[in-house]
Amino acid sequence: MDGIKYAVFTEKSIRLLGNNQYTSNVESGSTRTEIKHWVELFFGVKVIAMNSHRLPRKGRRMGPIMGHTMHYRRMIITLQPGYSIPPLIEKRT
């Protein structure tokens, strides 16, 4: 599961959980079929649809040199009714 970075918890993604849609950030080089295969294999669910988009890059400055953040894509994964993914909660201390 190297392609999936982490789950995204925003107002929109929490609202989409009611429609059985899950949001996560993935590596930019990963394909839709790879992500679908990983999700179905590791969570034991059936994926109906997947939507993705690239987020805009943010500028970062290191002294006089201007750079950008790393690329990643955001995937919205729709599961069949009756399936769900357990919450991915990190313990913060």
Helices and strands, with pairings:
Layout: E1 4-7, H1 11-16, E2 21-27, H2 32-43, E3 47-54, E4 59-62, E5 65-68, E6 72-79
Antiparallel strand pairs: 1-2, 2-6, 3-6, 4-5
What this model shows, in words?
The protein is α+β, with helices and mostly antiparallel strands. The chain has two helices and six strands, in the order E-H-E-H-E-E-E-E. The protein has helices spanning 11-16, 32-43, and strands at 4-7, 21-27, 47-54, 59-62, 65-68, 72-79. Strand 4 (59-62) and strand 5 (65-68) form a beta hairpin. It starts with a strand and ends in a 14-residue tail after the last strand. The model has no long low-confidence stretch (mean pLDDT 85). This is Large ribosomal subunit protein uL23c. It is found in: Plastid, Chloroplast.
Largest sheet: 4 strands, antiparallel
Radius of gyration: 15 Å
Percent in helix: 10-25%
The low-confidence runs, each spanning 5 or more residues with pLDDT under 50, are none
Any descriptors?
alpha+beta; rRNA binding; Large ribosomal subunit protein uL23c; 93 residues; elongated; rRNA-binding; 38% strand; two-stranded antiparallel ribbon; four-stranded antiparallel beta sheet; single chain; Alpha-Beta Plaits; 2 helices
